[in-house]
Amino acid sequence: MISTRNSALIAILTAGAIGSWYLARDDKIGEVDELPYESVHRGYYLKTARILGTGESGNLLYEIEADRAEQQSDQRIEFTGVRVRYSPDSDVPWTVSADAATLSEDSPRITLRGHVRATSNSASADEETEIRTQYLELDPELFVAETDERVQIRIGARSLTATGMLASLKDDKIELKSNVRGKIAP
User: Fold this and answer.
1) What is the pTM of this model?
2) pLDDT at 85 over 90
């Protein structure tokens, strides 16, 4: 027979077991569980991409070529292995290349990163200009390139380094911002 003392102990243990089960159960009924991973992005990606940019008149102004282009979820396109060339009709003899670039929907500027190189396509090797930096913002519609990073500029046999630059590619003008050092040979 079960004594009163044993009955009370069994009742207390049963109540404790039911109480702990109740507290430990998942009471998130109706709540959406967060996924342990990011949801699938339904953008696009392209291999060997070519994007054309047009001027106000609708004529071809420039083209962006990339080894890969991928649309991101925040309305921007990421490029790798990038080259930006102006149309021969634009009279802008510059080509810009970089390891990576970003083009945002809300900005006309292309942000170039990693081994950025801008070269003028001059007929004479003595007048060819080359700009090298790790970061450059290019506004292809206004023909403006700008950086606050360190730049190396070579014009023929002459070379300069500086921190920061603003270049008007259409006018072939380069303004260096600070810490300008150079080697100019006759």
Assistant:
1) 0.71
2) yes
